[in-house]
């Protein structure tokens, strides 16, 4: 009976896993290797009794045969013996138990291997997948592919519709094109986000394997290899504001300001050939377009498809596009490091395998989307179809959060008030759209009503991946900073990462949890019912911090007279207020986007200022008001200083003091343990991504207890300061050093192999031994060295620590490495 239940449980788990995986496989043909990894995970349930489960294994493999024409055979090997194999020809699939594959199949040059592990990481076998020999690779190319496995490719921040990042996911025509190539090669692609200005240097330094979307120039051809032909041809264009003159050539813009993306070919060209033109530099295309819309620049230059897509997607209604006559069409090339001829050859062969139907599907997916997003109006007035819709609809029903001031609230009298309420009124006044309130008892009830099409919109909602399944979202109409509130005795917090495992409260069921969980998956979240409860828990030391938007925290703190709370940091994300629209009303989404375009900055400012004033007027007395307002102003000032500190290289004196206090050990003025943890995590991420060497040294003063016992702790403190000085003066500028605890010090050496770290440690040992310490006290030290081979910081420190103890057990005053143990 027990065995039957056990087997039944295994089958149940397999069915669940297989069903979920099958759905994903059949909906994603872009990454064979990822799905094969999933297959290896499924097989762990079947391998322990593979002879009895052969039919289940066959059914599982058939899914992959059917979905991937490229797969020719499977083999499972244990202890150098084939325990299961399967292959197919043009019409049949063959199953072989305890037999190897035919020799002619195993000659195929393309394979993918993956270990099959049990839930407790016990090795069950090795899965080998054989692919059809579709590409005639040279032996050198086959060796390259066997060792490569993962291609590192740039992911632009905003080159829609070709290469952009949305909610942490790489998207675009070029991304899909690269995925087609990777699929032909059975390789994984790691898309590395960033800005264009950095990517070319990363490619030159082999931190990227290739780049997409590169325009060819003589200067770039001196530095890089380019694919022989472009995979796309695009037309150049210029954008200006409606009502102002068109520009068709750079020769027409002397004395004007042009917005351009830093590092792009056009940026260098204008800078070199048109000295009388002022350049407004931006980090990406959307910033460039907005610079023209906001009158920071007179015009901008770019690729017509990219400009049109961004203007239409973000509904920027005051811009127009004109042809540029200086250039014919540009080509997007795939670009490689100058020394990487072999990868260029491999990619070229893979591109030839992309079918016409695959390209047509790609073009339909992305360029049909552009046509769908276009609209012709030069302002926010509605089309005839949209006017007819509003006339037939009469009222747009809205469901709101009934208790979320200062944003929105339904009063006891049933009146809708708050910042968002005033925004809705302004939209109605600007466009004649009529809104009708549906009174609900909670945010969840409002959410469900719009989700179930019983209500038309949520006027204040935050866009998340999970919500996109139920709603369409407008462009944002207001933006609020998200801040970290703590007790007033805490110092500035640079990032949520710096909080470590401390408890952080957020409001239950609000989008902020999903947004921050994505970026900071390890944060320790405690859910609370409202802002007041969150701040009170901070005040009672039940949690370390509360995270919410600045207006919410300020309003709740003042209304409820919550003392001893301060804003200790601002996170990089902002709360973007959007309208969530039922997802079966596309025309309503278009209408509301145009309505939002009607909002003027002065109208938004008037509304937000009004509610700030109301908050201030509801204080208990003048003295308290002065204190609170002064506190809020001070917090705003410090927040602004903090932001300037984060975005500028030249720090002011205050920020230097703040940084030193929060990151350094008071006694030695070196980095403290918290800062070292942060640095080590960051450097291990670099190691993990780029495989650049990283080594650690832990140094410990020999017999330091004797110093304290003999000369006193005051002298011991002086010795520690001097010891810290000796270490810090004898390492590279690129190394990091800090006090790990007591008399132990940690040194982090980026781009240093073990032999380099051993030399550094020996130099430090000699320097300590020769140094004339306070009161002529003789000091020596022991050193442990470890070159990191994994990305787990705890394991790295542990191994360096073991090397240190090896040195201590070897009569001290010596250097030992973990590899010697």
What Rg is obtained from the alpha carbons, in whole angstroms? 31 Å
* Estimated share of beta-strand residues: 15-25%
Structural class: alpha+beta
Arithmetic mean pLDDT = 82
Figure out the total of helices: 28
Largest sheet descriptor: 7 strands, mixed
* Low-confidence runs: 1-30, 369-380, 613-629, 644-658
**What is the general shape?**
globular
> Total number of β-strand segments?
36
Helix content: 40-55%
Q: Cα distance, first to last residue? A: 49 Å
3D architecture notes:
The two termini are 49 Å apart. The chain is globular and about 90 Å long. The N terminus is likely disordered. Helix 6 packs antiparallel against helix 13. Helix 17 links the parallel strand 28 and strand 29. Helices cover 43% and strands 25% of the residues. The strands form nine sheets. Strands 25, 26, 27, 28, 29, 30 and 31 form a seven-stranded mixed β-sheet that branches. It has 821 residues and is α+β, with helices and mostly antiparallel strands.
Give the helices and strands, then pairings:
Layout: H1 2-27, H2 32-43, H3 54-67, E1 71-78, E2 81-88, E3 93-97, H4 103-106, E4 111-117, E5 123-131, H5 139-148, E6 150-156, E7 158-159, E8 163-166, E9 169-171, H6 173-185, E10 188-194, H7 196-204, E11 210-214, H8 218-223, E12 224-226, E13 232-234, E14 236-241, E15 257-261, H9 265-273, E16 278-282, H10 285-293, E17 299-303, H11 304-313, E18 319-323, E19 330-337, H12 341-351, H13 356-373, H14 384-393, E20 396-399, E21 403-404, E22 408-410, E23 416-417, H15 419-431, E24 435-438, H16 443-451, E25 457-461, E26 471-473, E27 478-487, E28 503-507, H17 511-519, E29 524-528, H18 531-539, E30 545-549, H19 550-559, E31 565-582, H20 586-597, H21 601-617, H22 622-647, H23 653-663, H24 673-690, E32 694-701, H25 704-711, H26 713-729, E33 736-741, E34 744-750, H27 754-770, E35 781-787, H28 793-808, E36 815-817
Parallel strand pairs: 6-10, 15-16, 15-17, 20-24, 28-29, 28-30, 35-36
Antiparallel strand pairs: 1-2, 1-5, 2-3, 4-5, 7-8, 8-9, 11-19, 12-19, 13-19, 14-17, 14-18, 21-22, 22-23, 25-31, 26-31, 27-30, 27-31, 32-34, 32-35, 33-34
């Amino acid at each position: 009976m027990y065995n039957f239940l056990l087997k039944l449980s295994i089958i149940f788990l397999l069915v669940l896993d297989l069903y979920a995986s099958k759905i994903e496989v059949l909906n994603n043909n872009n990454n064979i290797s990822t799905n094969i990894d999933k297959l290896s995970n499924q097989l762990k349930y079947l391998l322990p009794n593979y002879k009895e489960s052969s039919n289940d294994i066959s059914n599982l493999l058939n899914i992959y045969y059917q979905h991937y024409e490229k797969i020719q055979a499977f083999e499972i090997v244990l202890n150098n013996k084939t325990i299961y194999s399967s292959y197919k020809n043009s019409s049949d699939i063959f199953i072989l138990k305890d037999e190897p594959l035919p020799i002619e199949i195993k000659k195929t040059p393309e394979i993918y291997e993956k270990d099959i592990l049990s839930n407790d990481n016990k090795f069950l076998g090795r899965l080998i997948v054989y692919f059809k020999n579709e590409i005639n690779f040279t032996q050198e190319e086959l060796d390259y592919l066997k060792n490569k496995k993962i291609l590192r490719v740039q992911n632009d921040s905003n080159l829609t519709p070709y290469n952009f990042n949305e909610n942490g996911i790489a998207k675009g025509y070029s991304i899909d094109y690269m995925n087609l190539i990777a699929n032909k090669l059975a390789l994984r692609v790691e898309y590395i986000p960033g800005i264009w200005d950095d990517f070319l240097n990363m490619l030159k330094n082999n931190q990227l394997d290739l780049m997409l979307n590169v325009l060819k120039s003589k200067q770039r051809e001196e530095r890089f290899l380019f694919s022989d032909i472009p995979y796309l041809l695009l037309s150049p264009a210029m954008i200006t504001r409606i009502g102002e003159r068109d520009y068709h050539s750079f020769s027409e813009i002397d004395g004007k300001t042009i917005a351009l993306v830093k590092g792009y070919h056009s940026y260098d060209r204008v800078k070199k050939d048109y000295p009388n033109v002022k350049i407004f530099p931006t980090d990406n295309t959307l910033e460039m377009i907005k610079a023209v819309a906001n009158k920071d620049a007179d015009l901008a230059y770019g690729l017509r498809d990219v400009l049109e897509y961004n203007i239409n997607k973000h509904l920027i209604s005051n811009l127009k596009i004109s042809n540029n006559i200086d250039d014919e069409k540009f080509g997007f090339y795939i670009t490689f490091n100058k020394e990487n001829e072999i990868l260029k050859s491999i990619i070229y062969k893979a591109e030839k395998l992309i079918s016409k139907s695959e390209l047509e599907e790609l073009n339909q997916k992305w360029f049909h989307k552009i046509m769908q997003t276009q609209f012709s109006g030069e302002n926010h007035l509605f089309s005839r179809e949209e006017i007819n819709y509003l006339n037939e609809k009469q009222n747009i029903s809205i469901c709101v959060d009934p208790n979320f001031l200062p944003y929105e609230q339904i009063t006891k009298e049933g009146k809708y008030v708050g910042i968002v309420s005033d925004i809705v009124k302004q939209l109605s006044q600007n466009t004649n759209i009529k809104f009708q309130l549906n009174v609900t008892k909670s945010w969840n009830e409002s959410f469900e009503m719009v989700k179930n099409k019983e209500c038309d919109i949520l006027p204040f909602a935050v866009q998340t991946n999970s919500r996109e399944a139920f709603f369409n979202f407008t462009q944002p109409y207001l933006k609020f900073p998200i801040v970290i509130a703590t007790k007033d005795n805490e110092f500035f917090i640079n990032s949520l990462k710096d909080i470590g495992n401390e408890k952080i409260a957020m409001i239950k069921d609000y989008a902020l949890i999903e947004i921050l969980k994505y970026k900071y998956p390890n944060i320790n979240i405690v859910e609370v019912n409202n802002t007041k409860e969150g701040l009170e828990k901070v005040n009672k030391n039940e949690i370390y911090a509360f995270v919410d938007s600045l207006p919410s925290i300020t309003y709740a703190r003042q209304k409820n007279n919550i003392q001893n709370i301060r804003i200790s940091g601002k996170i990089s994300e902002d709360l973007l207020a959007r309208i969530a629209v039922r997802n079966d009303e596309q025309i309503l989404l278009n209408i509301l986007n145009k309505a939002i375009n009607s909002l003027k900055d002065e109208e938004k400012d008037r509304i937000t200022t009004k509610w700030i004033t109301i908050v201030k007027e509801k204080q208990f007395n003048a003295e308290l008001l002065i204190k609170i307002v002064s506190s809020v102003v001070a917090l705003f000032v410090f927040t602004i200083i903090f932001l300037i500190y984060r975005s500028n290289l030249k720090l002011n004196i205050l920020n230097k003091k703040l940084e030193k206090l929060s990151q350094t050990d008071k006694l030695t003025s070196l980095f403290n343990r918290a800062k070292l943890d942060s640095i080590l995590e960051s450097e291990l991420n670099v190691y993990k991504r780029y495989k650049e060497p990283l080594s650690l040294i832990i140094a410990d003063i020999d017999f330091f207890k004797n110093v304290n016992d003999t000369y006193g702790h005051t002298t011991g403190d002086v010795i520690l300061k001097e010891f810290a000085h000796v270490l810090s003066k004898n390492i590279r500028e690129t190394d990091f050093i800090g006090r790990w605890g007591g008399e132990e010090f940690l040194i982090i050496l980026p781009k240093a192999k073990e032999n380099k770290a051993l030399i550094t440690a020996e130099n430090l040992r000699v320097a300590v031994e020769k140094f004339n310490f306070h009161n002529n006290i003789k000091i020596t030290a022991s050193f442990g060295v470890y070159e990191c081979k994994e990305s787990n910081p705890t394991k790295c420190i542990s191994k360096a620590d073991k090397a240190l103890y090896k040195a201590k057990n070897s009569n001290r005053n010596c250097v030992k490495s973990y590899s010697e143990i």
